[in-house]
Amino acid sequence: MVSDDEDAQLMLAYGRGEMRAFETLYSRHRGALYRYLIRHTRDGEIANDLFQEVWSRVVVNRARYEPRAKFRTFLFTLAHNCFIDHCRRIKARPSSMGIEDADAADLLPADAELRPDRELERSEGSARYRAALAALPPEQRDVYLLHEESELSLEEIARVTGVGAETAKSRLRYAVGKLKAALSAAQESMTPVSPR
Amino acid sequence: MTEHDPEFEEFLKRRRPLFRREEDDGLEPPPELDRLVLRQAREAIRAEQPLPMYRGSRWAAPLAIAATLVLGLAVVFQFADEQQPRVVPEVTVESVAQRLDPPPPPSAEQPAWRRDSEAWLAEIERLRAAGQTARAEAEMAEYNRQQRAFAASPDR
Predict the structure, then answer these.
(1) Is A120 on the interface with B (CB under 8 A)?
(2) Is the pLDDT of residue B44 over 80?
(3) Which long-range contacts (CB under 8 A, 24 or more apart) does A97-104 make?
(4) Residues of B with Cβ-Cβ distance to A170 under 8 angstroms
């Protein structure tokens, strides 16, 4: 993990007009941000749009940026907000749903419509993983993906999502439990990472 | 789900994915999206940079100063010259007459016998008699030209 202080300095440097600083910043975070968005949306075009929108907000806010938090927190807060805005645009607001008992199938597109990961559906395990992830309530999926991709702490994830740390932890625990249960039958096709 | 879950706690501490798939590692934004974002970021800072100032050659400034000085001095001298009292010549009848009758154009020094027709013709005969036929013919041609010019003059 790169130094977040260094990220903040790069962002400040870009605010002063140093393009090379932005290039470094972008190269560090582009992959994680893209995976967060495409896992959330499960649509390549939407993910591309949101990805561009997030970085556009970074660019627009370059002069007002203050390193009061990690740059990753700043970046994924933008990403989270962009995704929420997207959900509102399609009239599927995650916040309107219950946290634990939301029916994700009402919000998410059917598997047949899931375009971006078609190339990844080469194994049954991948398909199960994707299906299990898609079946998570958006709030739980959001926390899980933030944990997976942003490498933020629970407190930082809580700040990004606008909830308390305990709520964030609860969501993450539920997400992990549901994923484990859904994937238990397909463990052999996954790359399990057993805790040390 | 509030009971202690060692596996989950380890998952939190180690910050390692439980369900990492190998395909995820290659999941990155397409190159055209990279180019789009970087171009947008580049254009944003380019737009706020001040326009480059014109930088002339190193002799342009001294040359401009010298030209300004020359022009300024010319104006000053011209103004000073106009302030000096002009000497107005006295207007007399003679001076007006002189202006109305410009002096005749300076003519080449002519021999005295050309000022009288008969003397001119006498000279021509003398030249012929002396065998200076060419010069006699030249004088005859000049005599005829002047006579034609005199006859065609408007004063006639």
Answers:
(1) yes
(2) yes
(3) A97/A137, A97/A138, A97/A139, A98/A137, A99/A137, A99/A139, A99/A140, A99/A167, A99/A171, A100/A137, A100/A174, A101/A137, A102/A137, A102/A138, A102/A139, A104/A134, A104/A135, A104/A136, A104/A137, A104/A138, A104/A141
(4) 1
**Contact between A60 and B8 using a beta-carbon 8 Å cutoff:** no
Chain B residues within 8 A of A120 when measuring between CB atoms: 21, 23, 27
Using an 8 Å CB-CB cutoff, list chain B residues near A148. Answer: 17
Regions in chain A scoring below 70 on pLDDT: 1-4, 91-125, 185-196
Which of B115-119, B120-124, B130-134 is the least confident region? Answer: B115-119
- Say yes or no: A46 contacts chain B, CB-CB below 8 A: no
User: What domains does chain A contain, in order, with CATH numbers?
Assistant: 4-187 (1.10.1740.10)
| A98 and B CB contact within 8 Å | no
Q: Does residue A78 contact residue A52 with C-beta atoms inside 8 Å? A: no
Other residues' Cβ atoms within 10 Å of the Cβ of residue A175: 23
